[in-house]
Amino acid sequence: MTPPTPPGPELLGPLLARLRRARGRSQQALAAELCAASGVPTLSRHEVSRWERQLRVPGGFWLGWLAVVLAVPVELLADAAGHARSARHRALPAAPARPPAGGPTPRAGLRPRGPERLRPPRHATRPARRRSRPDRPA
Fold first, then answer.
1. Three-state secondary structure along 53-105?
2. pLDDT, tens digit, 9 for 90 and up, residues 18-76
3. Using one digit for the tens of pLDDT, what is the confidence trace for 88-116?
4. Cβ-based neighbour number of residue 59 at 10 Å
5. What's the alpha-carbon Rg for the chain, to the nearest Å?
């Protein structure tokens, strides 16, 4: 789900989508151009979609190549990325300082620690079954 857009400067996701559409490119075409320009063959349209939906914010490497491919100043993209990062941090819920009283402990449901963990599993302590083979004498 896309976080709500705060008032103020444009965030990177909508900016990238607007610039891409203004140049008549699909996410697939933009990803292919970024791969060709950067020499990194692993960028897919899925990553471009994640950037546009603000699920991820590209780092400096990809911001530089986005600026080259989209023919915009890298500062424009860097500023929008900074605003997108700060908006993401504001949108994240704060973690509780400690678990609620009477609630489960953080390790509830996990495997035991200490000597109990060092015990071999029950199936490893059983003796191996001998199978009788009709072609060999016992």
1. CCCCCCCHHHHHHHHHHHCCCHHHHHHHHHHHHHHHHHHCCCCCCCCCCCCCC
2. 999 999 999 999 999 999 999 999 999 999 999 999 999 999 999 999 999 999 999 99
3. 777 656 555 555 565 555 555 555 555 55
4. 9
5. 27
In which residue are the tokens 């996990």 written? Answer: 110
Burial of 55 (0-12, 13-18, 19+ CB in 10 A): middle
**What type of residue sits at position 14?**
P
Write the single-letter amino acid at 9: P
Structure confidence at residue 131 (pLDDT): 67
Tokens for 2, please give them: 């896309």
Can you tell me the distance from the alpha carbon of 17 to that of 49, in angstroms, rounded to the nearest whole number?
9
- pTM for this one? 0.60
